[in-house]
Each structure stands twice: as C-alpha cells, then as structure tokens.
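Notebook p. 47: complex prediction with PRP.
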Amino acid sequence: MDNVSTSTPLSDRDSTQIAELISVNGRTFKLIIDQVRIDSIVSDLADKINSDYAGKQIIFLIVLKGSIFFSADLLRKITGDCRVETIRAKSYGTEMKSSGNVELDMTCSDVSGKHVIIIEDIVDSSRTLKKVSQKLKEQNPASLEIVSFLSKPTERVTDIEVKYVGMEIPNSFVIGYGLDFAECGRQYPDIYALHEE
Ligand code: PRP
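Predicted complex, structure tokens below:
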C-alpha cells in the first residue's frame, strides 16, 4: 500500500507547512502534537533529569525501535556524564493493538550498581516496561527509573511507575516521532492520532 504524505521536511518548514492529516497504510491520522511542542516537552524532561542526577553517571537504556527520535533528542540535552545502551522490545505486530506477548532482546552491558534510566516513546499497557524492568532488576542496578515521551494512563495493566512522563494522552493509536503503524509512519517529526473517517 502506498503511503501518502504532504508533510514538509524538518529543515525547511514553518508551522503552516505541517500536514494536519496524513495517510499511512490506508488509514488517516490527524496531527496532535507538533514538533515545537515536542521540543519543549523534551527540554522539560531533560531539565528534570539533569537536576535529579547531578554528579551521577546515568546509563540510558533505549528501547528500540519506537524511541529512536525521542532518545536522540533527549540525549542531546543531557548535560552530565552518561552512557547509552540499546535493547529491543516488540509486542505490536501489524495490528493497532498489542499482542500481549512482549519479545525482548536484552543484549546490553551489565548495569549492576549503575543508575539506569529506560527511555521509551510510549507507555500503553505497560507490559513492555514491566518485563524490561523485571529483567534489569535481576542485575541489581543502583537505581532504575523510566522516562517516556507519551503515556496512556487509562490503558495500564501493570503497577509499573514511570517517573518522567512527557505527556499523557487518551487511548488513541498514535504514529510519528518514531511510533509506527505496521512499521510505517515512524519518520514524521510530529505526532498523529488515528482519525476516524
Ligand atoms: C511499542 C512502544 C513501546 C510499547 C508500548 O513498541 O514502542 O515499546 O509498544 O506498549 P505497551 O505499554 O503496551 O507494552 P512496539 O512493540 O510497537 O515495537 P517498536 O518499538 O519496534 O515499534
């Protein structure tokens, strides 16, 4: 299926050039968070983390693939000492609903005794973060927190605590800024929600 976009590249756009509606995999999505707002949210999150972790080395653990843009933006605003690791988690296939089964590839350096912050693009059911956190706790990190750009509080099915949340949103399917629909739509610099035609 063709993906149709009228979105303008990041480098030469102004607010009048952001597409209000985009079509991805035959479904229509409506703009909900533009890049200016995204940048402001990321700055606020970075400020809080910089303040809370002053003088400490942070191990940032990026959960691929959805967090690619958020982690890149956030990390460029971190002022203190840090290291970066990546892991892979997947529970959404081609559907708009989680399979409930989280596949993990936790190949990363040992985090024993380290201050770890997991970077996620979105907390939905929270199954992914619950499973990742449980695995990491087995290594006895000095501390373990989570930063997520988006959160859908109504959809939680676990008791996981997310210390740093960029923005809470209602239960709609969202794409852009790293988030995908059947692997498409990650490349948009803004965030879009499914638009019921
Ligand atoms: C998405 C997202 C989170 C997870 C959130 O990943 O990036 O990791 O789902 O959902 P949950 O709270 O219900 O577990 P996905 O499985 O789509 O893989 P991706 O990151 O490669 O897109």
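Notes: The first strand starts at residue 21 and ends at 24. Residues 63, 65-66, 89-92, 98, 120-128, 180 surround PRP (CB under 6 Å).
Next step: compare against the earlier run before touching the bench.
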